[in-house]
């Protein structure tokens, strides 16, 4: 039997008896309170010798079912038993090697799970707690970006499921500095997509200039767009959903859109101008042709926010639009702090 394992299955196992408190300076004779509780915590639940994962093993190949040997977490890491992992469009970047991830690589960066093993040095996360992790997979705390607080732009950042193995697996080893707690009141499968698609929409929209009551359009009601409509509604915007499929009309209304534009039947820019012009257009579908078509739907000083990864070039005749919009932004996420707020918003909607 491995150290830390118990014979009765999946509950928390034996205590670690030799965990040391942080050293205290006793030269003055005064014993200050330790910064961290010295109470030892359980560091590992019962675990297998190996576990199943799905990995890209060759360029343009299919996901392969593999067995991964168990490895105990090192300082700064924890092992999470995966309850749910969302499927993101960028997972295919690994299979196609559009990013130099190296192969084999286990994709998946929308992870919700249970803390299963921690090193004895871990003082924040405890075995049995519900946690989540997204795209951002770790930062160094010491580069110029980190010192400025821009952790998601760390010079040495890593990305879950891209540059380190992700959540298409029974277990995943994650860095703690970019993890969050997840309420057990939330369904893991419904929550996981919020950790990439959700935070991309939420954190970008809330940092724009639009105010409650403004006309805000969301182009593309797919993985990101259907969440963007809900956030836009919750932020008090007069929300317009734009889709090339009339089949999305009913869904968009249910998600909170006040207006629906079928871009296969009417020019979306003209429809938006009829409504007064958009303060912000959120492009959430990777369709460069539609992005070009919606531009003239912006009102004065409007913002075009592109959060879709269109693979072809987007052509923008700058002179024609110079007086129309002042912001043209390509956003991924602004910091990880939004990870907390996003769940607050969801929890409030459940109350
Ligand atoms: Zn993603
Ligand atoms: Zn850094």
TrEMBL record:
Residues annotated as transmembrane: 324-347
Domain Alcohol dehydrogenase-like N-terminal: 75-180
Spans annotated as Disordered: 1-49
The keyword Oxidoreductase belongs to this UniProt entry's keyword annotation: yes
Keyword annotations: Membrane, Metal-binding, Oxidoreductase, Transmembrane, Transmembrane helix, Zinc
Coiled-coil annotated spans: none
Alcohol dehydrogenase-like C-terminal domain ranges (all copies): 223-318
Name of the featured protein: Enoyl reductase (ER) domain-containing protein
InterPro entries: ADH-like_C (IPR013149), ADH-like_N (IPR013154), GroES-like_sf (IPR011032), NAD(P)-bd_dom_sf (IPR036291)
The organism of origin for this protein: Somion occarium
Family note: Belongs to the zinc-containing alcohol dehydrogenase family.
Keyword Isomerase applies: no
Superkingdom classification of source: Eukaryota
């Amino acid at each position: 039997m491995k150290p830390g394992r118990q014979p009765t299955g999946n509950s928390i196992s034996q205590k670690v008896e030799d965990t040391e408190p942080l050293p205290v300076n006793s030269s003055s004779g005064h014993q200050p309170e330790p910064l961290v509780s010295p109470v030892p915590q359980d560091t590992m639940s019962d675990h297998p010798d190996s576990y199943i994962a799905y990995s890209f093993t060759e360029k343009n190949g299919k996901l392969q079912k593999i067995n991964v040997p168990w490895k105990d977490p090192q300082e700064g890491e924890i092992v999470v038993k995966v309850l749910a992992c969302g499927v993101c469009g960028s997972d295919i970047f690994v299979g196609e090697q559009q990013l130099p991830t190296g192969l084999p690589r286990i994709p998946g960066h929308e992870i919700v799970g249970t803390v299963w093993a921690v090193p004895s040095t871990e003082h924040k996360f405890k075995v049995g707690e519900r946690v989540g992790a997204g795209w951002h997979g770790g930062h160094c705390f010491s580069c110029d970006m980190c010192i400025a607080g821009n952790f998601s732009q760390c010079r040495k950042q890593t990305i879950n499921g891209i540059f380190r193995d992700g959540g298409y697996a029974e277990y995943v080893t994650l860095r703690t500095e970019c993890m969050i707690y997840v309420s057990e009141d939330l369904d893991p499968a419904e929550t996981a997509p919020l950790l990439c698609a959700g935070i991309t929409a939420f954190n970008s929209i809330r940092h724009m200039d639009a105010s409650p009551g403004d006309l805000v359009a969301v182009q593309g009601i797919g993985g990101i767009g259907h969440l963007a409509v809900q956030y836009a509604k919750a932020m008090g915007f007069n929300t317009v959903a734009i889709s090339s499929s009339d089949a999305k009309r009913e869904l968009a209304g249910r998600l909170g859109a006040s207006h629906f534009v079928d871009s296969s039947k009417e020019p979306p820019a003209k429809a938006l101008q009829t409504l007064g012009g958009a303060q912000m257009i959120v492009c959430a579908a990777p369709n460069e042709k539609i992005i070009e078509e919606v531009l003239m739907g912006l009102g004065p000083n409007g913002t075009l926010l592109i959060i879709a990864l269109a693979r072809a070039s987007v052509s923008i005749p700058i002179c024609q639009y110079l007086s129309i919009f002042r912001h043209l932004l390509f956003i991924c996420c602004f910091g990880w702090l939004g990870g907390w707020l996003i769940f607050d918003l969801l929890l409030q909607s459940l109350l």
